[in-house]
Amino acid sequence: MSTTASTTPPIRTVMSPGRYVQGKGALARLGEFVAQIGTAPLIIADDFVWGIAEDQVSASFTAADLRIERVGFGRFATATAVDALVEKIKETGTDVVVAVGGGSAIDAAKSAGHLAGIRWVSVPTVASTDAPTSALAVIYTEEGEFVEYRFFPRNPDLVLIDTQFVANAPVAFLVAGIGDALATWLEARATAASNSTTMAGGQPTQTGTALAKLSWEIIHENAFSALDAVRDGVVTPALENLVEANTLLSGLGFESGGLAAAHAIHNGLTAAPQTHGLSHGQKVNIGSLTQLVLEGAPRAEIEDFIEFTTRVGLPTTLTEIGLTVEDETELRAIAELATVPTETIHNMPFAVTVDDVVSALKSIERLSRSVRADRGLAEPVKHVAKH
């Protein structure tokens, strides 16, 4: 997504969802907001999520005189899953698709809604990614390997997140969201430095860059208190702040501020089967640390990043994602996928090669272990891939 020569003057642009709703008990008002968008909704939710959300969603839809039509969903947003949803939309005469659940279900709904020519709504039940607000979807293979980004001309008409659901979910989801959102500022500042094209289709705006930085600041101020709130299953101001940072601010910041090396390296990591059991945010955190190494960030900044993310519970070594510095074949495959011509790593303000990425990935093992030892942090525990 780097800038290319053009005969027309460059533009700067910001994209955002039509409406963002967040708060404890917000799900009870879903029908009220969906009824302003369409009259024949189709709900996309896997069986587990539907078991938790069905009563509240159904009650809100009934109160708004909306039909209750639900279709299940698998693990990944694959091209096949999207095409199946398009057929279901056509069969049921749907005019708005409502995704309830995680990032993959939401991405599939956005992609299917776009192909079917209808409107779409994101209802994340966890704050594990910043995908819900964006006008793009990530498509994977059945095994979880990155395939492509799909871009849409508009964002969701509605993003609604009930913070009590976030508080009730395992804390690992919120940790993953922190990993995803922390990359937003690191990538936005790199994109601003290179004046590259953002996911919104223009050069970065001051607004997008500022929102990315605000997300970073709110996360650092609220993360630990918010994680404790989730461990206790309660909604607190710190949790509300963190959910907004993870979801809205990071979503706006990455889309209109720009992606760079961190997410490209995440996509590259999907080439290694060892990483398939990891969350999006865990892999992104490795990408963020690798980006800091690539850009020669100040040692103090890197050390602080390692300490903060280790204390949050995110991986900062190859060991923790099932790799080693000796895995030359896997590391090169990761680097090659991360540096394909269409990848966002080329938004960095300097050229990045396959060899650069391999070297940076190898370097984080010793670097992180050293910082963790100096600061009294836990030793890395090897991630064992589940097949």
Automatic annotation (TrEMBL):
S-adenosyl-L-methionine in keyword set: no
Q: Which residues form the Alcohol dehydrogenase iron-type/glycerol dehydrogenase GldA domain?
A: 17-163
- Pathway membership: Polyol metabolism; glycerol fermentation; glycerone phosphate from glycerol (oxidative route): step 1/2
Q: What class of enzyme is it?
A: oxidoreductase
Pfam families recorded: Fe-ADH
The note on cofactor binding and number reads: Binds 1 zinc ion per subunit.
Q: Where does glycerol bind?
A: 130, 180, 263, 280
Going by the entry's taxonomy, the superkingdom of the source organism is recorded as Bacteria
Instruction: List the Gene3D superfamilies.
Output: 3.40.50.1970, Dehydroquinate synthase-like - alpha domain (1.20.1090.10)
NCBIfam families named among the record's database cross-references: PRK09423.1
Give the protein name, as stated in the record. Answer: Glycerol dehydrogenase
